[in-house]
Each structure stands twice: as C-alpha cells, then as structure tokens.
Amino acid sequence: MTLLVIGAGGFVGSAFRRDPRPAEVYTSRKGDAANTVRFDPLVDNLADIRGVSRISHALLLYAQREPDECIKDPIGTAFVNVHSPCRLIDQCVDMGVVPVFASSELVFDGSDGLYTELAHPSPILEYGRQKLVVEEYLLDRAPRGLILRFPKTIGVRRGDRSLLSTWLDRLEAGDQVFDCALDQHFSLEFVDDVPEIVRQVTYAGVSGVLHLGDGRRHSRPDLLVQLGDRLADHGLRAPIVRQILLTDLDLPERRPLDVSLDNSKLEEIFGPRDAIFATAIECALLDRRGDRDS
C-alpha cells in the first residue's frame, strides 16, 4: 500500500515530508516544496502523476481554510474546496485508489460539543458547508473512502501560524497581553502526529468518518494559562490573559462555539491521546531552546 499526499506543501502536508516514507508520493501546487512533485489539483489529473500506478490511497489535504475568505468569495473558494476534491474523488474511484479527505470540525454548528462521528453535521460557516458537500459526495461515490475530521491542529515551528507557535512567536517578539475568547471550545491535534495516524488508519482499511484529536474541550484562556505555567517552570515570561467573548467580535459570520470532537473511535486504535498540548509545549520549548543555543 502506498500513499499519495496532495497538498504536501502546506502546514499538515509538511509533516509527512519531515517523516517521509520512500514509496510515498508528495505533491505541491508548484512543485517547489522540498521532496514534492508538481501537481495542481485544480486542473491536473491524477493519471499524470509519475508513479501513480502504485498508489493505493490519496490524501486530499489542500483547501482554502480561511472562513472569512470563504464567505467573502463563496463561488471562488468552492472551486477549490468542493469542485476540485470531488473531481479528484471521481478519478480515485475510476483508478481504484481509496480517497482520504481532510475535513473539519467546522461541519458542526457548535451547539453541543464532543461530537461523535454519528452526530448530524449542521455547519453555520460557509467553509463548513463546503466541507460537508465533499463529505457527502465521498460517502456516496467511494464506500471504501475515509473522511478525517481535523480539530484545531497545532505545531511548534516558528511561523507556521498555528495556535501554539503563534503565541510563542508573539512572546518572543515582546508581546505579553493576549485577548482570548472565553466562550469558544475545541479539541486539539498535534501536526507531527498526523502522518503516523493517517498511515495506520488507511492501511488498516478504516473507512467512513473518523475524528482526530485529543477528545477534550479546550478554551484559549485555559490553554494559554497552561502554557504560561510551563514557561514559568522554565524561567520564562508568562503571558497575561485578557478574556473576551467571541460573540462580541464583529466577524463576517457567526462562529460555532463548541466544536470539540469525541475521539473514542481513534483511541480504540491509538490509546489515550489527552496529553497533546503538554507534549507540544515541551517539543516547542526544546526546539526553540536548541535554536537559541546554536
């Protein structure tokens, strides 16, 4: 079995290239990311990828992920987020390749939280509606296909724009006061864990819908306090948390308030995963201390 990662130049895709497997194929839109071949999922065909004949699974990672961009340009972003992946799902089916679609917690409206895979999606964001269209299309067209619903995914590398590293980048730049929404909750995934999870569940033949993450409800203030405690343990300056309400912000669309995901199905395979944030903090501190020491 061999995995094709479409969108390996992005945040999550880069984790596969940091932990590569010789037989896997990684693509980026321009082919300029290290260890990738050029493939534009908006116009190119899977059959044109060199070595595609040995591919068993195709992971569709690319997307326009900014909710504000999706509501501002629903037609243009739907071409990226809906038309293109549906086209590639058709090609996967025709070629006997199992499609694996990277979906989102934002297919839920946020009224409950700790959603299971059996919960009924009801997105309130345009981005979530686009993701749900592809989910439904895949389930109809590819019974062996897999939908991976990602929670908020964090990394530790400078400039990756994820939650944890953005906080650390700001602290290193001298920022100390952080506005954090008290009324929003979500689960977490660590980007460096994603490749191994994807490899194991795809090669084990898991199909349908699978929730990733730690299966917990987090808020930004709670996470920032936890980060501050660990920084203080290392003799570093802790951030000051200023709590706000997400519902008070002037946003183009109303945001879902609790999109945390139940991960019981995933834990049947990998065991407990409730220490993701603590692990990521330690990895970040080791990584950045190594940069400073060097």
Please name the defining characteristics of this protein:
294 residues, alpha/beta, Rossmann fold, 11 strands
Write the layout of secondary structure elements.
Blueprint: E1 3-6, H1 11-18, E2 25-28, E3 37-38, E4 57-60, H2 67-72, H3 74-95, E5 98-104, H4 126-141, E6 146-150, E7 152-154, H5 163-172, E8 177-181, E9 188-190, H6 194-203, E10 208-211, H7 220-233, E11 240-244, H8 264-270, H9 276-293
Parallel strand pairs: 1-2, 1-4, 2-3, 4-5, 5-6, 6-10, 7-9, 8-11
Helix pairs in contact: 3-4, 7-9
Structural features, described:
The chain is an alpha/beta fold and 294 residues long. It has helices spanning 11-18, 67-72, 74-95, 126-141, 163-172, 194-203, 220-233, 264-270, 276-293; strands spanning 3-6, 25-28, 37-38, 57-60, 98-104, 146-150, 152-154, 177-181, 188-190, 208-211, 240-244. It has 9 helices and 11 strands. It is globular, with a radius of gyration of 19 Å. It has a domain at 3-151 and 190-215 and 257-273: Rossmann fold.
Strand order of the largest sheet: 3-2-1-4-5-6-10
Strand content: 15-25%
Per CATH, the architecture of the domain at 3-151 and 190-215 and 257-273 is 3-Layer(aba) Sandwich
Within the CATH hierarchy, at the fold level, what is the topology of the domain at 3-151 and 190-215 and 257-273? Rossmann fold
The ordered H/E elements are EHEEEHHEHEEHEEHEHEHH
Residue windows where pLDDT falls under 50 for at least 5 positions: none
Q: Would you tell me the overall average pLDDT?
A: 95
- Overall form: globular
Helical coverage, percent range = 25-40%
What is the number of E strands? 11
| Terminal Cα span | 40 Å
The name of the CATH superfamily of the domain at 3-151 and 190-215 and 257-273 reads: NAD(P)-binding Rossmann-like Domain
Number of DSSP helical runs: 9
Main beta sheet strand tally, sense and closure: 7 strands, parallel
Level-1 CATH class name of the domain at 3-151 and 190-215 and 257-273:
Alpha Beta
C-alpha Rg (nearest Å): 19 Å
Class derived from helix and strand content = alpha/beta
